[in-house]
Every structure is written in C-alpha cells, then in structure tokens.
Amino acid sequence: MCMKREFHLDVQNGVRITGVLRDCATQKHEYHDYKDGVWSPKMEILEPYEEGCTHTDDKGERTTPTRYCYCRQNLCNSSPNSNHEGYTDIMGVIMVFNLMKYINSLR
Question: φ, ψ for residue 99 (rounded to 5)?
Fold first, then answer.
C-alpha cells in the first residue's frame, strides 16, 4: 500500500508551513517464533489500513494537524506533475561555471 502524510505547522506572524511525506505504508511484521526448541525468524504481511484519508486525533495534545491517506494503485500517492524545464538549464550553467572555476584553480 502507498501512504501520504500531510501536516501543517503554524509559525510566527501567521506563516503556515505545509509538509508532505510520500512512502510505502508499513505492512511487514517480522518476529521470531520458538518451535521445537529452536528460534526461527518469521515474517507476515498485515492489512492494518483502509483506503482513504483520515485525520489524526491528538487526544488533547498540542500537535500539528496531520492527515494520512492510504491507497493501493500504482503511484497513487504521487504529487501532481509540474514543469521543471528551466531548472535543468540553470543547473547546467552552474555546473559548467563550477567546473571552469575548478580547472582554473589547478593552473
């Protein structure tokens, strides 16, 4: 399963910082089993999550609002596409500049 965690942090002057963490949901449970006088490693896949989004209940604690979303489709927790064509050009210019600076320092 895929997991997406969205959280917000309110800082000074009314500024809100938003964070998003995308990852695989933890489903693997590893443990050791004692059988016939021998310990052996075991592993099982659990299904602890339901598809959809939920907000965490902070039970009165002062924590940041967090929303967890779980889904099963391929790459279902991905972010929307964005256009980053200009960044590649800028990074190329910076790399060439630093390479020339390094070459000149060797002389």
Answer: -65, -45
Higher pLDDT, 89 or 71: 71
pLDDT digits (tens, 9 = 90+) for 13-69: 888 888 888 888 888 899 999 999 999 999 998 888 889 888 877 777 766 778 889
Q: What is the DSSP letter of 76?
A: T
- Residue 28: name the closest of 46, 49, 6 by CA: 46
Residues in CB range of 100: below 8 A, 6 or more apart? none
What's the pLDDT score for residue 88?
Answer: 64
CA distance 25 to 53: 13
**Among the listed residues 32, 21, 24, the one whose alpha carbon sits nearest the alpha carbon of residue 49:** 24
Token code pair at residue 43: 């592993």
| Amino acid, single-letter form, for residue 5 | R
Residues in the chain: 107
Rounded to whole angstroms, the Cα distance separating 77 from 19 reads: 14
